[in-house]
Amino acid sequence: MIRGLLRTQTAPLRAAVIARPAFNLRATAALPSSVRFYSEEAKKSEEEKKSEETKEESSEEPKDELTLLKESLEASKQETSQFKDRYLRAIADFRNLQDSTKREIQKSKELALKSFARDLLEVADTFDIALKTLVKEEGATTEKKNKELDDLVEGVQLTQNMFLNTMKRHGLEQIEAMGEKFDPNVHEATFEVPQPDKEAGTVFFVQQPGYFLNKRVLRPAKVGVVKAAE
After folding, report:
1. Which of 102, 116, 139, 228 is the most buried (most CB within 10 A)?
2. Are residues 223 and 176 both part of a single domain?
3. What distance in Å separates the CA atoms of residue 222 and residue 104, rounded to the nearest whole number?
């Protein structure tokens, strides 16, 4: 009797327990469609966000390009300014170099002239000494006059040698023409005369001596040349 009573009381509970899983299965079977819907909405929203970001980026591209052009223009201006500054500095340095070179050349000329003038003073002193030895005396004998004349000639020759040596120290040398083969680069023929005992085309007379200045012809020597026999 008690067992029958318990069976009658637990029967509804069993039925409820057995019926409950069927309800849950139906509920869980309906879940995938809602989840799928939610995922599609999420994907759609993400795609919309991406498209909006792409649109924004595409709309900002011209602005970025314009900014780059402005920056490039500004860099070009700065570079041009630097080149201009360097150019002006180079011009200023070149002009300063020109001025300093001119001053150095002028200074060198003055020093060379000063040295040459100092050397010529020795020649002038020698002339003074030679002239002082020639004193006019009344009643001087012929022998004394000849002696003074010899001294004069000797003094003039000494002065000439001093003068030539002075010029040679400064690059001024006399052209040796006597007995040399005629050279149109250093000689200037003023006349020709046949000379049986001399070779044709050689210099036999120096009318005016020529000079070299630093190994270059300053003045050609005027000479007489032996003419070839006809």
Report:
1. 116
2. yes
3. 37
Nearest to 130 by CA among 175, 163, 103, 88: 163
Indicate the Cα dihedral angle 33, 39, 45, 46, nearest 10°: -160
Inside any domain, residue 181: yes
- Amino acid at position 186, single letter: V
User: What distance separates the 2 farthest-apart alpha carbons in the chain?
Assistant: 206
Residue type, 105: I
DSSP secondary structure code for residue 202 in this structure: B
Residues 6 or more apart from 217 whose CB is under 8 A from it? 175, 185, 186, 210, 211
Start-end of H helices in the chain: 2-132, 142-169
- The pairing of beta strand 172-174 with beta strand 216-219: unpaired
The residues near 152 (Cβ < 8 Å, ≥ 6 apart) are: 130, 133, 134
pTM as predicted: 0.49
Q: pLDDT tens, 133-162?
A: 665 555 567 777 777 778 778 878 888 888
Q: Name the residue range of residue 178's domain.
A: 172-229
- Dist CA 99 CA 51 (whole Å): 72
Number of domains, the chain: 3
Q: Are strands 221-227 and 187-194 parallel, antiparallel or unpaired?
A: parallel
